[in-house]
Protein backbone atom coordinates (compact mmCIF):
# COMPACT_ATOMS: atom_id res chain seq x y z
CA UNK A 1 0.00 0.00 0.00
CA UNK A 2 2.85 2.34 0.82
CA UNK A 3 4.53 1.79 -2.50
CA UNK A 4 1.28 2.51 -4.36
CA UNK A 5 0.85 5.82 -2.55
CA UNK A 6 4.49 6.70 -3.19
CA UNK A 7 4.04 5.89 -6.85
CA UNK A 8 0.95 8.11 -7.00
CA UNK A 9 2.81 10.91 -5.21
CA UNK A 10 5.80 10.65 -7.54
CA UNK A 11 3.62 10.66 -10.66
CA UNK A 12 1.72 13.69 -9.30
CA UNK A 13 4.99 15.53 -8.69
CA UNK A 14 6.24 14.63 -12.15
CA UNK A 15 3.03 16.01 -13.66
CA UNK A 16 3.36 19.17 -11.58
CA UNK A 17 6.97 19.71 -12.62
CA UNK A 18 6.06 19.14 -16.25
CA UNK A 19 3.24 21.68 -15.96
CA UNK A 20 5.60 24.29 -14.46
CA UNK A 21 8.20 23.88 -17.15
CA UNK A 22 9.01 26.97 -19.21
CA UNK A 23 9.13 24.94 -22.41
CA UNK A 24 6.05 23.23 -23.71
CA UNK A 25 5.93 19.51 -23.21
CA UNK A 26 5.16 17.62 -26.39
CA UNK A 27 2.55 14.90 -26.12
CA UNK A 28 3.98 11.41 -26.44
CA UNK A 29 4.27 10.29 -30.04
CA UNK A 30 1.77 7.74 -31.14
CA UNK A 31 2.99 4.51 -32.60
CA UNK A 32 3.33 4.77 -36.38
CA UNK A 33 0.60 3.12 -38.38
CA UNK A 34 1.72 1.16 -41.40
CA UNK A 35 0.35 2.50 -44.65
CA UNK A 36 0.76 1.48 -48.22
CA UNK A 37 3.08 4.39 -49.09
CA UNK A 38 5.15 6.40 -46.64
CA UNK A 39 3.84 9.95 -46.24
CA UNK A 40 6.24 12.75 -47.09
CA UNK A 41 7.14 14.93 -44.17
CA UNK A 42 7.43 18.67 -44.38
CA UNK A 43 11.03 19.71 -43.84
CA UNK A 44 11.79 21.11 -40.42
CA UNK A 45 12.34 24.87 -40.43
CA UNK A 46 15.98 25.94 -40.38
CA UNK A 47 17.10 27.43 -37.10
CA UNK A 48 17.47 31.20 -37.08
CA UNK A 49 21.06 32.31 -37.61
CA UNK A 50 22.81 33.50 -34.48
CA UNK A 51 24.51 36.87 -35.05
CA UNK A 52 28.17 36.98 -34.26
CA UNK A 53 29.39 38.97 -31.29
CA UNK A 54 31.09 41.52 -33.54
CA UNK A 55 27.82 42.27 -35.38
CA UNK A 56 25.99 43.18 -32.18
CA UNK A 57 25.38 46.90 -31.56
CA UNK A 58 27.14 48.49 -28.63
CA UNK A 59 25.03 48.44 -25.48
CA UNK A 60 23.27 51.69 -24.73
CA UNK A 61 23.35 53.46 -21.42
CA UNK A 62 20.78 52.39 -18.91
CA UNK A 63 20.14 56.01 -18.07
CA UNK A 64 17.82 57.53 -20.61
CA UNK A 65 19.22 60.82 -21.83
CA UNK A 66 16.81 63.56 -22.68
CA UNK A 67 17.49 66.51 -24.88
CA UNK A 68 17.52 69.85 -23.14
CA UNK A 69 14.91 72.27 -24.51
CA UNK A 70 16.47 75.24 -26.31
CA UNK A 71 15.12 77.70 -23.75
CA UNK A 72 16.92 75.84 -20.93
CA UNK A 73 20.21 75.31 -22.77
CA UNK A 74 22.63 77.87 -21.35
CA UNK A 75 24.46 78.04 -24.70
CA UNK A 76 21.32 78.90 -26.67
CA UNK A 77 20.39 82.55 -27.33
CA UNK A 78 16.82 81.76 -26.20
CA UNK A 79 18.22 81.13 -22.75
CA UNK A 80 20.60 84.09 -22.71
CA UNK A 81 18.51 86.98 -24.06
CA UNK A 82 15.11 87.20 -22.41
CA UNK A 83 14.65 90.84 -21.48
CA UNK A 84 13.35 93.77 -23.51
CA UNK A 85 14.35 97.13 -22.01
CA UNK A 86 12.33 100.33 -22.32
CA UNK A 87 12.96 104.04 -22.09
CA UNK A 88 11.62 106.06 -19.16
CA UNK A 89 7.82 106.18 -19.11
CA UNK A 90 7.61 104.24 -22.43
CA UNK A 91 6.16 100.92 -23.54
CA UNK A 92 7.13 100.91 -27.21
CA UNK A 93 9.73 98.32 -28.22
CA UNK A 94 13.01 99.71 -29.55
CA UNK A 95 14.37 98.42 -32.85
CA UNK A 96 17.36 96.98 -30.95
CA UNK A 97 15.09 94.19 -29.72
CA UNK A 98 13.58 93.08 -33.03
CA UNK A 99 16.04 90.16 -33.37
CA UNK A 100 15.25 88.98 -29.84
CA UNK A 101 11.50 89.22 -30.53
CA UNK A 102 11.89 87.39 -33.83
CA UNK A 103 13.98 84.59 -32.28
CA UNK A 104 11.53 83.96 -29.42
CA UNK A 105 8.43 84.38 -31.59
CA UNK A 106 9.74 81.91 -34.18
CA UNK A 107 10.60 79.41 -31.45
CA UNK A 108 7.12 79.68 -29.93
CA UNK A 109 5.50 79.33 -33.36
CA UNK A 110 7.51 76.15 -34.00
CA UNK A 111 6.76 74.77 -30.51
CA UNK A 112 3.04 75.31 -29.87
CA UNK A 113 3.07 73.31 -26.62
CA UNK A 114 5.50 75.73 -24.95
CA UNK A 115 3.82 78.52 -22.99
CA UNK A 116 5.53 81.56 -21.52
CA UNK A 117 4.77 84.38 -19.15
CA UNK A 118 5.78 87.91 -20.14
CA UNK A 119 6.53 89.86 -16.97
CA UNK A 120 6.41 93.65 -17.25
CA UNK A 121 8.45 95.73 -14.81
CA UNK A 122 8.97 99.39 -13.98
CA UNK A 123 11.50 101.38 -11.98
CA UNK A 124 10.69 102.76 -8.55
CA UNK A 125 9.59 106.20 -9.74
CA UNK A 126 5.84 106.69 -9.94
CA UNK A 127 3.00 105.39 -7.83
CA UNK A 128 2.37 101.69 -7.28
CA UNK A 129 -0.75 101.80 -9.47
CA UNK A 130 1.03 103.70 -12.24
CA UNK A 131 3.98 101.27 -12.26
CA UNK A 132 1.67 98.24 -12.35
CA UNK A 133 -0.18 99.72 -15.33
CA UNK A 134 3.09 100.61 -17.11
CA UNK A 135 4.48 97.11 -16.49
CA UNK A 136 1.29 95.61 -17.96
CA UNK A 137 1.56 97.81 -21.06
CA UNK A 138 5.20 96.74 -21.55
CA UNK A 139 4.31 93.04 -21.20
CA UNK A 140 1.38 93.47 -23.60
CA UNK A 141 3.60 95.26 -26.15
CA UNK A 142 6.03 92.31 -26.15
CA UNK A 143 3.12 89.84 -26.42
CA UNK A 144 1.76 91.70 -29.45
CA UNK A 145 5.20 91.77 -31.09
CA UNK A 146 5.62 88.01 -30.54
CA UNK A 147 2.20 87.41 -32.12
CA UNK A 148 3.32 89.27 -35.24
CA UNK A 149 6.19 86.80 -35.62
CA UNK A 150 3.91 83.77 -35.31
CA UNK A 151 3.47 82.94 -31.63
CA UNK A 152 -0.10 82.15 -30.58
CA UNK A 153 -1.77 84.29 -27.94
CA UNK A 154 -2.81 81.10 -26.14
CA UNK A 155 0.90 80.37 -25.52
CA UNK A 156 1.53 83.66 -23.73
CA UNK A 157 0.36 85.49 -20.65
CA UNK A 158 1.19 89.14 -19.96
CA UNK A 159 1.56 90.06 -16.29
CA UNK A 160 2.91 93.08 -14.44
CA UNK A 161 5.12 93.20 -11.39
CA UNK A 162 5.35 96.98 -11.41
CA UNK A 163 8.31 98.00 -9.26
CA UNK A 164 8.12 94.85 -7.06
CA UNK A 165 10.84 92.80 -8.80
CA UNK A 166 13.79 95.07 -9.57
CA UNK A 167 16.77 93.60 -11.39
CA UNK A 168 19.14 96.20 -9.94
CA UNK A 169 19.02 97.96 -6.61
CA UNK A 170 19.78 101.63 -6.38
CA UNK A 171 18.17 104.96 -7.08
CA UNK A 172 20.10 106.16 -10.08
CA UNK A 173 19.67 106.02 -13.85
CA UNK A 174 21.86 102.92 -14.17
CA UNK A 175 19.62 100.89 -11.83
CA UNK A 176 16.40 102.36 -13.19
CA UNK A 177 17.39 101.47 -16.78
CA UNK A 178 17.77 97.80 -15.78
CA UNK A 179 14.40 97.78 -14.05
CA UNK A 180 12.37 99.16 -16.98
CA UNK A 181 11.90 95.87 -18.80
CA UNK A 182 9.72 92.95 -19.82
CA UNK A 183 11.11 89.48 -19.12
CA UNK A 184 10.21 86.31 -21.03
CA UNK A 185 9.74 83.59 -18.43
CA UNK A 186 9.80 80.06 -19.85
CA UNK A 187 8.66 77.03 -17.83
CA UNK A 188 11.23 75.26 -15.68
CA UNK A 189 11.39 71.54 -16.16
| Principal-axes shape call | globular
CATH hierarchy, class of the domain at 77-185 = Alpha Beta
User: What is the β-strand count?
Assistant: 4
**Strand portion:** 5-15%
CATH fold topology of the domain at 77-185: 60s Ribosomal Protein L30, Chain: A
CATH superfamily of the domain at 77-185: OmpA-like domain
Q: Unreliable runs, pLDDT <50, ≥5 residues?
A: 49-63
Mean pLDDT: 79
User: What is the oligomer described by this structure?
Assistant: single chain
Total helical segments: 5
CATH architecture classification name of the domain at 77-185: 2-Layer Sandwich
How would you spell out the order of helices and strands? HHEHEHEHE
Strand arrangement in the largest pleated sheet: 1-4-2-3
Structural category is alpha+beta
Sheet with the most strands, sense and barrel status:
4 strands, mixed
Structural Rg: 37 Å
Q: What's the end-to-end separation, in Å?
A: 74 Å
How helical, in percent, are the residues?
A: 25-40%
Amino acid sequence: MRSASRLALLSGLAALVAACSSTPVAPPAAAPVATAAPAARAPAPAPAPVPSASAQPAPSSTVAGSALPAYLDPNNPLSKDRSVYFDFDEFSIKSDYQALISRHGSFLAANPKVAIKIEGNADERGSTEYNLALGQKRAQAVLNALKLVGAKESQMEAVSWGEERPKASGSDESAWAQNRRADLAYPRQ
